[in-house]
Amino acid sequence: MTSNDATGEAERMTEVHLSARQIQVLAHPLRIRLLGQLRLGGPATATGLAEALATNTGATSYHLRQLADAGLVVEEDRPGSGRQRWWRALHELSSWQRSDYADDPAAAAAVDWLEAYQLNLLVQRIEGWRLVAPGEPVEWRDVAGLGDYALTMNPAQLGDLQSDLEELVERHRARAEADPQPDARQVLFFYAGVPDVGEER
């Protein structure tokens, strides 16, 4: 990502609001991992992605083409790269709203899959940190963790809260990117705002 010369801050992250077709294409275990790897690791070849994700190059190439057809990744022209094809993500963030797909059962099912995937990823990543935390530096152990609040709000107020949080995260991301620190590492920041429907019985 480039810096903005006028402000000294990094440019705002690019976002795609997923169409019905895009969300259906993305709702696939390997495709969502490929897109995530390209977003976090930058441009890569199908071979490099296959190695990073412990899969085979044939499957990786096929699913990259599916993502490209949906407008989520693009092949990069790299002079001197020979027969190797380089791919990059077209956006840094994806977003969607359930109501966009109310009349499309296939897209609505894709939303269900993606949200279940996100939930499972959250649990896996946080559990992964919990298991290694005792061996991590105390500075990281003290700031990494979980929290929760119980708030009484209507939908508009919850929407405002989410927008404020997104702006806050974006501001801190841009600041950190504009002023890299030697002890910085990638941090996963998850948040969720859902009505309390009670515990499962």
Overview of this structure, please?
With 201 residues, this protein is mainly alpha-helical. The chain has a single domain (15-178), classed as Winged helix-like DNA-binding domain superfamily/Winged helix DNA-binding domain (Arc Repressor Mutant, subunit A, Orthogonal Bundle). It contains seven helices and five strands, in the order E-H-H-E-H-H-E-E-E-H-H-H. It has helices at 20-26, 29-41, 46-53, 57-69, 105-132, 138-143, 155-178; strands at 15-17, 44-45, 73-76, 86-89, 93-95. The protein is globular, with a radius of gyration of 19 Å.
How are the secondary structure elements laid out?
Elements: E1 15-17, H1 20-26, H2 29-41, E2 44-45, H3 46-53, H4 57-69, E3 73-76, E4 86-89, E5 93-95, H5 105-132, H6 138-143, H7 155-178
Parallel strand pairs: 1-5
Antiparallel strand pairs: 2-4, 3-4
User: Strand order across the biggest sheet?
Assistant: 2-4-3
Q: How many helical stretches?
A: 7
By secondary-structure content and strand pairing, the structural class works out as: mainly alpha
Using the alpha-carbon principal axes, give the shape: globular
Low-pLDDT residue spans:
1-10
Q: What share of residues are in beta strands?
A: 5-15%
